[in-house]
Design a protein that fits this description.
Shape: globular
Largest sheet: 6 strands, mixed
Helix content: 25-40%
Keywords: ATP-binding, Nucleotide-binding, Transport
Number of strands: 10
Low-confidence stretches: 263-268
Strand order of the largest sheet: 6-7-8-3-9-10
Bound molecules: adenosine-5'-triphosphate
GO molecular function, one term: ATP hydrolysis activity
Protein name: ABC-type quaternary amine transporter
Radius of gyration: 19 Å
Organism: Metallumcola ferriviriculae
Mean pLDDT: 89
Strand content: 15-25%
Distance between the termini: 35 Å
EC number: 7.6.2.9
Length: 278
């Protein structure tokens, strides 16, 4: 359904050219939950922005149902790490905003928005303003605002990255419930291995310099997922091993020639934020 063909991206200015992505090829099935996982700076967000139509690839193309992506569209909606709600609108009006722009009749739009806010457990907060909500609640509004547009693909750029651990775990469960209920295709950017394994059907692991796909893993575990599922734990360790090699490579490049890098110098914790690893 979604095909990424030979996508490369170079950011250049007068002084230098930075190759961020090289020859990315990927196919995403309808109703599939995939994660783009990799260390900070490997180009995950850039690829997501290219799929969203917010950036143009230097080379290659993204197709959805055979149509080339030429710019942003309501078939692909993005949820960012910062919920980016309109502070002057209440929760209900934030969710109604996109529907109004689509020209959907007011009564129908309200029914849809309220139903979506019920799905994310915010029915009691329809008339609250963003500053009155917790970070987790704001992300729920952002998810409702995206889903109410009924996109073909939901794009999520580290949506839970700024939340505390407990809220994050709660939202993992809620997002999985939404995924099972709506059967949406979801592309999820993260540098948290445990999060990727917990949520995805397939994990695309990126390496850096330039950003490229180094390996893909299918997640074989029943849904709803159980945190102590041995398949998940085993997969976390396999991915951590793979990424440790990648992180060591970058660290060696960055540090002095004489620096000797010990294998165990990177803490063995799949829940660790890989962004701080290099
Ligand atoms: N508009 C831009 N102009 C120039 N360089 C950019 C631009 N956007 C991103 N970059 C650079 O491209 C590289 C990849 O950035 P990107 O945000 O895609 O990585 P990422 O894997 O999502 O990282 P993180 O996990 O830290 O968000 C970085 O070196 C970044 O500085």
């Amino acid at each position: 359904m979604l095909k990424i063909r030979n996508v490369s991206k170079i950011f250049s200015d007068k002084k230098q050219a930075l190759q961020v992505l090289t020859k990315i090829g990927l196919e995403v099935r309808e109703g599939e939950f995939i994660s783009l996982l990799g260390p900070s700076g490997c180009g995950k967000s850039t690829l997501l922005n290219i799929i969203a139509g917010l950036e143009k690839p230097t080379e290659g193309q993204v197709n959805i149902n055979g149509q080339a992506v030429a710019g942003p569209g309501t078939d692909r909606v993005v949820v960012f790490q910062d919920a980016a709600l309109f502070p002057w609108l209440n929760v209900l009006d934030n969710v109604l905003f996109g529907l109004k722009r689509l020209g959907i009749e007011k009564k129908e739009a309200k029914i849809k928005a309220k139903a979506m806010l019920k799905t994310v457990h915010l029915s009691k907060f329809l008339y609250s303003y963003p500053h009155e909500l917790s970070g987790g609640m704001r992300q729920r509004v952002a998810i409702a605002r995206a889903l109410v547009m009924d996109p073909q693909v939901l794009l999520m750029d580290e949506p839970f990255g700024a939340l505390d651990e407990q809220t994050r775990m709660m939202l993992h469960k809620e997002l999985e419930d939404i995924f099972l209920e709506t059967k949406k295709t979801i592309i999820f950017v993260t540098h948290n291995i445990r999060e990727a394994v917990r949520l995805s059907d397939r994990i695309i692991v990126f390496g850096t310099r330039p950003g490229r796909v180094i390996k893909q893993f299918s997640v074989h575990a029943t849904r709803p997922r159980q945190a102590n599922d041995s398949n998940l734990v085993h997969l976390e360790n396999r991915i951590m091993e793979l990424l440790q090699v990648e992180i060591e490579k970058v660290a060696k490049e960055e540090l002095d020639d004489g620096y000797s890098f010990s294998k165990d110098s990177i803490p063995w914790d799949p829940d660790r934020d890989l962004g701080s690893g290099i």
